[in-house]
Amino acid sequence: MANVVIDITSFSFGVGDKEILDNVSLTVYEGEYVSIVGPNGAGKTTLLKCISRIHRGGRGRIAVAGKNLEDYSQKELALKVSYVPQADGRHAPFTVREFVLMGRYPYLSPFSPPGPSDTAAVQEALEVTGTLEFSERFLGTLSGGERQKVYIAAALAQEAGVLLLDEPTTFLDPKHESDIYRLLAGINRKRGVTVVSVTHDINSAVLTSRTVLALKGGRVAFCGPAQDFINEEVLQNIYERTFSLMKHPHHGGTIIAPEVP
Amino acid sequence: MGKGSNYRRMLLGVILLFTIVVVVGAPTVGLTSLSLHSILHPSEGGLDAEIFYSIRVPRVCVAFLAGAALAISGMAFQAIFRNPLATPFTLGVASGASLGAAVYVRLGLAVSVLGVSGVSAFAFAGAILSILLVYGLTRIKSGFSIGTLLLAGVALNFFFSSAILFTQYMSDFTHSFRILRWLMGGLDIVGYESVLNMAPFVVSGIAIILFLGHELNLLLTGEEIAISRGANVGRIKKVLFFATSLMVGGVVAICGPIGFVGMMVPHICRLLIGADHRYLTVATILFGGTFLTLCDMLARTLIAPAEMPVGIITALLGGPFFIWLLLGKSSSKMGML
Question: What is the ipTM of this complex?
């Protein structure tokens, strides 16, 4: 059995008196691809932010690589976990290369210029994500799909074993969407990076990941193998509507058929 | 297109050269033309040497320190709040510092703590209190937008301005005049006392910010990304707020509130050299100091023997130049911030 990289036990998190995550448990193994799904406001993004310690506090336990989250300094944690936030439409005035280089922050000291290992990591991240050709352009000039690849490149340059992504394909056209999924699958398989991705795209979640975690109202509504998730009863319970299921023509697995309005 | 590091180093070199020319040249320019011989032989005790060493040189020092400090404080605020309009002036920090200084004058105190003049200490206290107030607002309610923050800053500004006027109104004639004269903002100082008062504040503030180049870059990309890259954002912000309070307090105590430098100089430098704070910080320090020195030189020579408040010149010169830069090609591509 592979090592456990993220171990969440009975974790609850609230803002004010509003409980956003309620008794959530999840175990992620090294090299796994986990999708987190669920209705809007289920606490998916909050869970990612708690793992990357953007949100602090909460009750229960989150451990990364066997060590409690509170025992990490922010820099140490950045060596283990990287995070790609949801697109917020704001751009810092940096070029792609400058931005990707910032992924090396946990390795840099205040005045030293980036060393050969930093330059190499940046170059490789740019190549893997196919962003090298526009590496001198400013972030503000990129399309949504290009931007998303650059953000993934920056997280890759961080060389952490776990990659957390928040809705990486939202707002993307089908081509860019499949580009991103292929990129993530490649990173997961070839480099052994553990991927935890929040998504609303149930079909892709089922086709790309081994494990699916579904949240509803801050609670775990489903956690298990992806193919068990694609079940009429489970889905209806989570999304409060009916789904018709079908066989994928190439993959052979079950997927959700588009609804006829 | 991005700017290579060679280009940036070259540009920094040009700015440094410009700085040296201005700083060395500025004390020689003025109402009275001074003889070089007298300046080079101060031991002979000529009047020219006296004007040069006890009036013009300290004045240039103060102008440079103040310009550098104000510009770099503005740069730090723009990065922390990710907004081109966020500066210690727009967010009410400078007026908080002014209030602190005005209260000190009103109380008629003359104290110094560990060699730091009381008025600087009061201005620093005013600055740090207003930062706590502004930043506290963002913490009380989550999802506090930058628009609301700027509005709160404007409100704070008005509040402090009224409080300053109130302090002044309640003062006797001498105190009142001292407050008013100081509020106009100016660099007309004599001797090195002001320089020595200001320098520790400005130098330590600048040193802290120089040290945080990578962190400022990360803050500019957004807090969440900064945290996930390993930056301890909470602590970094506190350190930056402390450093800017030091600088704003130190400058405002001596020169009064001089606006515009803090908003404009960082933008100009960002357009010239890019947003990478490893270069931007140095450029902003040099350019801010040089810019205010230059403006002060004009302020004291243009309508000589009278003097203009330096704030008039900074805005008159800087405003059109700034707009010209905004209309240029590069600004739209990279976005102002």
Answer: 0.92
